[in-house]
Prior knowledge:
Elements: E1 3-8, H1 21-30, E2 35-40, H2 42-45, H3 48-51, E3 61-64, E4 67-70, H4 72-82, H5 91-119, H6 128-150, H7 162-172, H8 184-195, H9 197-210
Parallel strand pairs: 1-2
Antiparallel strand pairs: 1-3, 3-4
Amino acid sequence: MTITITAFDHSPDGGKGLARDTRVRWALEEVHQPYAVRLVPWRAMKEPAHLALHPFGQIPTFEDGQLVLFETGAIVLHLASHFPGLLPADPTARGRAISWLFAALNTIEPPILELSNAKLLERDQPWAAARLPLVQQRVRDRLRQLAARLGEAEWLDGGFSAGDLMMVSVLLRLRSSGILDEFANLAAYVARGEARPAYQRAFAAQLAVNLPKAPG
Length: 216
Ligand code: GTB
């Protein structure tokens, strides 16, 4: 049975790899599982066929036979639990890696999303300029803590894990803000993640979908 995921047919980022199918593609590449991609136009995301797979009408989804998953955390954890390569065998190390996976999604990603919202969705509000520094500060506070924990280590806890995959994916969203580069060890950590062959394959695959088409 071929694993099938869904992705935007046109990502709003034009192929920068920031839409969340990239992290799922990356996990699939790390565990060497072939997959198919069904591209979903914006309109179709809110129609019954897609809502049956994803209650919130979002991408990505994951199908493997009868199993249908949504939420990138659940998808990456599922892959990491079923195939070798993304979680250590030792139960305590495995638990810590899973903690980092959740930390990426529940502690680091929320303020980063707030920053995106403040810059894009809320920029025309009369209070937008006053609020932005507060939101930026919340991101910096979390990054300072994360940078202190990472120190000069290569990955967050021993070898590369699903926790690093998710943390790097989340931090990538910050690059255009310049805030990531204020933390040299985090910027280097993200670059190490991007340099992994599995990430490169995932990035190239999403870019192939989103590259502007030549006229004619
Ligand atoms: N918590 C869910 C998960 O982790 O799976 C969040 C899924 C999600 O937000 N999906 C987005 C979506 O489907 C696409 S990735 N949005 C449509 C909708 O909600 O109606 C978010 C995203 C979109 C675009 C960029 N970008 O252009 O830079 C980055 C991230």
